[in-house]
């Protein structure tokens, strides 16, 4: 059983608000990822980290930021939410080896009004 | 560009066998994954192929042909709980995952 947790599971907020989506894992994985997924569409990588103090942007242009101060914690922040940010956000982690599978959190479904 | 193609939707009958195909065009290849995703839930790992051939795991099997850029997921003895989306993903030369849009599998009694 994977141990990766996301909060909140569901969030409805107004335009312009600042939000942080939390993600924590207890497996000691070095690699962590944030994906965005719309219904019936592929997962798009928005940020990833290969370890503490390491963060990189993915292939999807995003107005979000991430930090990796601790191995187990990888929060995603939107400084000013817009309706276009409405989506499902999935956090994932994997072991150090390049062929490792991803373990996903339950997801955070964000609606911006 | 990089591309993963899967059928959008498939329908099968409980107890039957279904094959979900995936073709890919990526910059390099470092393995292919299949994930299962039930509606409203997170994806869960099913299989990993890096060499050509068939990998069997219970009712599920996954096949890979690197020369053809092709994989399939075979599900046997279908159960109602197998109704889900099945996602194909390829690791490219930079070890980044490229995802398909998924195949929604509907199981009918």
Topology overview:
The complex is a heterodimer of chains A (113) and B (109).
Chain A: E1 4-7, E2 10-13, E3 19-25, E4 31-37, E5 44-51, E6 54-57, E7 64-66, E8 76-78, E9 87-94, E10 103-104, E11 108-112
Chain B: E1 3-5, E2 9-13, E3 18-25, E4 32-37, E5 44-49, E6 53-57, E7 60-65, E8 70-75, E9 84-91, E10 97-99, E11 103-108
Parallel strand pairs in B: 2-11
Antiparallel strand pairs in B: 1-3, 3-8, 4-5, 4-9, 6-7, 7-8, 9-10, 9-11
Describe this structure in words.
The complex is a heterodimer of chains A (113) and B (109). Chain A is mainly beta and 113 residues long. In chain A, 0% of the residues lie in helices and 49% in strands. The radius of gyration of chain A is 13 Å and the shape is globular. The mean pLDDT of chain A is 92. Chain B contains no helices and 11 strands. The interface between A and B is medium-sized, with 17 and 24 residues.
Number of helices in the DSSP assignment of chain B: 0
Strand content of chain B: over 45%
Mean pLDDT of chain A: 92
Radius of gyration of chain A: 13 Å
Short summary of the structure?
The complex is a heterodimer of chains A (113) and B (109). Helix content of chain A is 0%, strand content 49%.
List key phrases describing it.
heterodimer, A: 113 residues, mainly beta, seven-stranded mixed beta sheet, four-stranded antiparallel beta sheet, 11 strands, 0% helix, B: 109 residues, five-stranded antiparallel beta sheet, 57% strand, globular
């Amino acid at each position: 059983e994977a141990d990766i947790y996301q909060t909140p599971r569901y969030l409805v907020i107004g335009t312009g608000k600042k939000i942080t989506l939390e993600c924590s894992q207890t497996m000691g994985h070095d690699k962590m990822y944030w994906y965005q997924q719309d219904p019936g569409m592929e997962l798009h990588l928005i940020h990833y980290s290969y370890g503490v103090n390491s963060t990189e942007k993915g292939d999807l242009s995003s107005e979000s930021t991430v930090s990796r101060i601790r191995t187990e914690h990888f929060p995603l922040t939107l400084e000013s939410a817009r309706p276009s940010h409405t989506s499902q956000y999935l956090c994932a982690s994997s072991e150090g080896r390049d062929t490792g599978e991803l373990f996903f959190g339950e997801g955070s479904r964000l609606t911006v009004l | 560009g990089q591309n993963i193609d899967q059928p959008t939707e498939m329908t099968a009958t409980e107890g039957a066998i279904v094959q979900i195909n995936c073709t890919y065009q990526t910059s390099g290849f470092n393995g292919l994954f299949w994930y299962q995703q039930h509606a409203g839930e997170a994806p869960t790992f099913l299989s990993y192929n890096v060499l050509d051939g068939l990998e069997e795991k219970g009712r599920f099997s996954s096949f890979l042909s690197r020369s053809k850029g092709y994989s399939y997921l075979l599900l046997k003895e279908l159960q109602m709980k197998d109704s889900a989306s099945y996602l194909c993903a390829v690791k490219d030369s930079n070890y980044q995952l490229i995802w398909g849009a998924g195949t929604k599998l509907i199981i009918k009694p």
